Amino acid sequence: MWSRPVAIPTRLPRRPTPSSLRLPKIALAPSSTRLYANKACTDYLTPTHLDDNVPLDVQHKLKRHSAVTLNTYARPHFILARGKGCKLYDTHDREFLDFSGGIAVNALGHADDGVAKILQDQARKLVHNSNLWHNEWSGELAYLVVQKTKELGGMGYPAGQADQNGQADEGGLKVFFTNSGTESNEGALKFVRKYGKYAAALRNAHGAEKGVAAPTDEKVEIVSFRDGFHGRSMGALSATWQDKYQAPFAPLVPGFVPATLNDIDGINQAVTEKTCGVIVEPIQGEGGILEANEDFLRALRKRCDEVGALLVYDEIQCGLGRTGSFWAHGSMPVDCHPDIVTMAKPLANGIPIGAILMKDKVADVIKIGDHGTTFGGQPLQTRVAHHVVSRLSAPSFLSHVSTVGTYLSSRLAALPTLFPRLVAGPPRGRGLILGLPFKRDEYVQRIVKLMRERGVLVLSCGKMTVRFVPSLTVSEEEAEKCVDVLESALLTLDRESEGI
Ligand SMILES: Cc1ncc(COP(=O)(O)O)c(C=O)c1O
């Protein structure tokens, strides 16, 4: 059970703050019930979930498992057994408040009743039947994703013009289902390559019948951005310009070109007539919650059009409601929109699935047999995803994400002033994909641990950043508790690091 620490009656004596640094009262989201002064919360100074306090049975199990498990993750020593909403419980029933959301996956929270019901029902009907036959749900999910894109904005369809954007079956967009984010990007990279071969040929042949003109190898380069993350297969990894991921596995796939996010001046040099595609996250997640700005995306779109390259947005972490819009790019003007969007993580609330959403002009160059998958688009995961997309595309759901995100962000925004030695600046990101920058990486690692030892799970990302990607159903009270615990952890670290 969650055990609230013994109340500490007084707030810690604070070092005197120079009047120039003193904070005005922090602005609150209107529905909040708590008033904040310019003081950090001290309710959680005492750890309740110490990492080193590992029960014997857990020690034995972990030892047994580690003897046979490839060790690619540094995990704390507890075993999670169940969850509900934003709460997780370990095998000893200790409660954790989960602000990691399965790394931005569990959009509807853990053990959602609607998802559970559908899983059970579909498991009794049909789980898998291969892609050689139609099933009831794959096409319905594709229809829903296209319909919601047209209704809510994205992929060239402006937000707020649902009545003019048309219906899904009027054409314009197509979907291919995969099993993960990596596979969605891998597929998108293949589609981009094939388009490049034929697009060049088609342009040369002045409108020759689609696919008839001979392919060329002149247009095969793919541009992607430093600090981006697109996955760990050889193709997706080749687009992931981070040394720690790439170096151990070099040589990678040829033809990938690095560029710098938000460097408009660098675009023309990176994106040339040889470029078949550009892949970018509208908000770099693993890289540190770094947003691509609107002007940059507009310039990228323009340059892709000039050279006949496809623009791919990897919305695997930031898409499907996380920013408070259906697509992260959906709230931007259409001259910032892509030709392809890749998605995965929240699509079926944790049941593995991914998808590639593309314009018809991309779909037109992909022929039967060009690409395939055993598991992609099967009835179990597509039916769950249909349920998830129906719920997270509801305007009330999206506005909840924006409201709680704004509240969380406003609380985090006070921390650079409260903890100037530790916190490097205001939070980055939108909606419920937020990152708080720190002054040192060891502070980030320590804060993640101090919060975990107080029963709150958060993640690190990129350079010196703590990441907040909870379930999208998270309440304002849960956000409040998360920041209260963070403040207590910061106070603890501030005292520890006095001598650092
Ligand atoms: C933006 C982005 N792209 C791709 C991936 C890879 O997805 P997956 O782990 O499902 O293969 C991730 C995973 O973190 C991601 O955040």
TrEMBL record:
Pathway assigned to this chain's UniProt record: Amino-acid biosynthesis; L-arginine biosynthesis; N(2)-acetyl-L-ornithine from L-glutamate: step 4/4
Record carries keyword Transferase: yes
Keywords per UniProt: Amino-acid biosynthesis, Aminotransferase, Pyridoxal phosphate, Transferase
Keyword hit for Transferase: yes
Short name of any one Pfam family annotated for the protein: Aminotran_3
Gene Ontology CC: one annotated term: mitochondrial matrix
Cofactor(s) of this protein: pyridoxal 5'-phosphate
Record GO terms (molecular function): identical protein binding; N2-acetyl-L-ornithine:2-oxoglutarate 5-aminotransferase activity; pyridoxal phosphate binding
Subcellular location: Mitochondrion
Known EC number: 2.6.1.11
GO biological process: L-arginine biosynthetic process
SUPFAM superfamilies named in the record: PLP-dependent transferases (SSF53383)
Main subcellular localisation: mitochondrion
Xref: PANTHER family: ACETYLORNITHINE AMINOTRANSFERASE, MITOCHONDRIAL, AMINOTRANSFERASE CLASS III
UniProt name for this protein: acetylornithine transaminase
Originating species: Rhodotorula diobovata
Lineage per the UniProt record: Eukaryota, Fungi, Dikarya, Basidiomycota, Pucciniomycotina
